[in-house]
Structure formats: structure tokens, C-alpha cells
Amino acid sequence: MTPYVWEPTEEYRTGANVTRLADRHGLASLAELRRRCVEDIAWYWDAAMADLGIPFMKPYERVLDLANGIEHPEWFVGGCLNVADACVRRWAADPPAAGRLAVVHETEDGSVRSLTYEALATEVLRVARGLGRLGIGRGDVVALLLPMSPEAVVAFYAVAAIGAIVAPLFSGFAPAAIAARLQDAGAKAVVVADATVRRNRTVALKPLLDEALCSCPSVTHVVVVGEPAGVTTPGRPREVGWAQLLDLADPGRGCDSAADGWAVATASSDVLVLAYTSGTTGR
Fold this sequence. Notes:
By secondary structure, this protein is an alpha/beta fold. The protein is 36% helix and 19% strand.
């Protein structure tokens, strides 16, 4: 069997991001860049941050601190940033980029929804403010029980924007698996889709969460996507519909300035995501 080998064209090679990085530092080849990044890890990541233009709200003092051993590194010591600011707001505030597509979602039936960076930023800001009105803030854990959808993207960045922690939940989990992860995380809120569609079959998600919540007292709020909510049941978390959450945000506010409270500054080592590994040892 003849092995498949792909050779990039000269135009492709010269236009590649990795080529730009190597050229910027006077490195003649990809092999030289590899050698340099292995020999000096801190140099490489400092160069990468500058090349990508990652916006730090507070510049880092050191790239890497291995005082506690290589197994316990501290990255970008003293620096502060926010993932939502770096991935969404800065593009929404850039006129050439604001109108570009950030999210394109196609369902099984072929319907398509899309969001530009400007539209994504607006939705993220509204959800972030809505979560804040519910009392969710820095360090709180918000679980996402959502299918791949625009709301999943918006919710993830909204949680990041307020300095909270995302706990993703696979939409195929049984109630016991959902409960175990919510308990371990001490989740304060859950964003859940009423249902999703897999292979043309509607799969209800909200009932799975309802069963799981019987043993998850830390959860105080549930945001429901795709169902009119607002139901308040004694002894159960307060339910809020996605549309209601958006309405909690101040109407008419812009999102073109970090100074407008768009995103909080989080330390480089702050937790962003709690994710289980695969298998039974994930905990």
C-alpha cells in the first residue's frame, strides 16, 4: 500500500501561521522552531501569546514558574485575562471582524442558524448579565446540559465572562451520572435544553435533570432552553427560561468596551472548566 503524503504548496506554506511565527523570530525552518520550543518552553509560549495577540487585562510577570516541580507548573504568573474577552469581545469590537461569522449551526433537518461576532458578543453579554442577576458570580460552577447549539456557545462564554466555572455534561448521560458530576462540582446553576434531536428522534433532557436534582441541593437555579419556564416548585431550584434570562439584562446596553463590565479579569491559573476524563477513573 502506497503511503499518502501531502506536500503543502509554497503559497500555503508562506501563508501559514506557524511560518509567520518562525519568520518573526528569524528561524529558518519548522524543525528549527520545534527545537527552539522544546529547549525553551517559556520562550515559545511568550512568543505565541504575542503572535496571537492574546489580550491580557493585566500583563503577566513571568511565563512559567516551575518552583513546585514540572508536574505543578504556574503559567503566565501575575497575569489576568478572560476567555470571553479574548475570543469574542475583541473581535466584536473590531469593525473588519465584527460582521464575520462566529457560529454556524446546522440541524439534522438542514435548518441553519448563524451568529456574527457582533451578534455573539451581544448574546453573551445579555446571558452573562442575566446570570449575574440570578446571583451567579466568580468561582460559582454552572453546568451545561446542552446539545451542540448556538446556546451552548453563548452559555459557555457567558459563564466565562463573569468569572464562573463551566461544568459540561454530555447530553447522553443518565440521571445518576448527571447527579454525580453536579455533586462533585457543587454546581450552583444548570443550563439545560428541554430536548434535543438525535437521528430524527426527539430526546428529552429536562426530565433527566429533574431526576438528578433530587440529590443535588447545591443547585439553586435552572435555565431552560426551548421551553417556557418560570415554574417554581417548593423545594426545587428556581426555573428560568432562556428568553427570561435574556430579559434580565439591561436593555439597549452596548458591548463594545471591557470597561462597560463586559468581562471580569480572571487570573491565568483560575479554573475555567471542570471536565471528567473518559472511563471510570474520571472523578
